[in-house]
Amino acid sequence: MTTHLKPFIYAWQFLTAVPLSRTLHHPAPDVLAGSMLWYPLVGILLGGVVALTDVVLVRWLPREVVAALLIFLLVAMTRGLHQDGLADTLDGLAGGRTVTDRLVIMRDPRLGAIGATGLFLSLIIRYGALVSLPDALRIPVLVCMPAIGRWGMVISAYGAPYARAEGGLASSFLTHLSGRHVFGASAVIVCLMLWCFGTVPALTAVLIGAVFSRLATMLCCHLFGGMTGDTLGATNELVEVSFLVLMPLIMSLP
Predict the structure, then answer these.
(1) Tell me: the pLDDT tens digits for 59-68?
(2) Sign of CA dihedral 118, 43, 185, 39
(3) Which terminus in the chain has less CB density within 10 A, N or C?
(4) Residue whose C-alpha is closest to residue 189's, from 240, 130, 233
C-alpha cells in the first residue's frame, strides 16, 4: 500500500463505518491531521452512493419514502458520528453555565432533552429539504451535500484550539492541520461545486459554508474554550442542512 493512499484510508475509516484496511488504525497525529485533506473526497463518494440509491429507489417508491431512506443510509454509512456530535454539543450548550460544565455534559453518554430536540429538528429539516428538492438539482445536491459538510469541518478546525486540557482524539486534527491541507480540501470542493452548479451559485454556496463554519468555530471557542470532535460533527450537520435548504434558493437568484 503506497504512503499516499494512507491519509485517504484514515479519512475514510474515521468518517464512515466501512473499513478499508485491517492494519491501518493508529495513525500518527500529523498523518491524522493530513487525512482531513481527503474529507471532501470521502464526502463525494458518500454522496455518490446516496445519489445512486436515489436514482434506483425513486422509480419504485414515493419521494417521501425515498427521502427518509436516504437519510437512514447516510446515517448508517457514517455510524451517526455527526448526529451524535450535534446532540452532545446542544446538550452542553443548554445544560452548562461554565466552560467546564459544558464539556462535562458533552461527555455524558445520556441524551438530554435539548440534544434530542435539536437532533430531531435537524433530521426533519433535512427530510423536508430533500422532499422539496427540484428534480434538476436532485443529483448534484445529493452528491455535493456530504462533501461540503465534511469540508466545513476542515474550515472550522483550522487554527482552532482544542477545548479539553487533557487532550483527546480531535486534538491531533486541530494541532497539526496546516494551510496546505485546508487549501487542498478547498480546491476539491470548489472544483466540484463549479462543475455541478456554475460559477456564481457555486462560489456563493462555498462562501456561505465557509462563513457558517467559521461562525461555529468562534461560537465554540467562546462557549467551550475551543473545538472538540463533537463540535466538529455539529459543524458538519450545520453546513449540510443549510446547504440543502439554501441551494435551491441560490440557484433561483438572477
Answers:
(1) 999 999 999 9
(2) positive
(3) C
(4) 240
